[in-house]
Amino acid sequence: MNTLTAKQRRTFRTRRNIQTQVDNGRMRLSVFRSAKYIYAQVIDDRTGRTIAEANSKSLAPKGDKTQQATEVGKTVAERAKEAGVTRVVFDRGPYRYHGRVKALAEAAREGGLEF
Asked: What would the pLDDT profile of 6-25 be if each residue is shown by its tens digit?
């Protein structure tokens, strides 16, 4: 049998809900959260290429994990704007819009991304 885990079901449900906006030409701001770091990348799903990325592992910002996520959000917004991307769809994956994920999204909005 082909059974999915709860995490896979949440991920697929989130992607299904944003799919029409991605098909209409918007880029996707994808978030991955590990126990120690947080990663964000702006992806062009039409070509399958990453336009901009940032993570707390390479930036090494100071502070707690929420402050690190805020720095990653600002950095990915700056890099996306340099690449000419201003409108994105936020793909939170299987994670709830809370804590580090919310901090990253709000910092990206402050940095100039629209979603």
From this structure: 999 999 999 899 988 888 88
- The two three-digit tokens of residue 53, written as one number: 């990325």
Domains of the chain: residue spans and CATH: 6-110 (3.30.420.100)
Phi-psi sector, 26: left (phi>0), alpha (psi -120 to 50), beta: beta
Kindly report the pTM of this predicted structure.
Answer: 0.89
**Cβ–Cβ under 8 Å, residues 20 and 79:** no
Closest to 59 (Cα-Cα) out of 41, 39, 42: 39
Cβ atoms of 12 and 45 within 8 Å: the answer is no
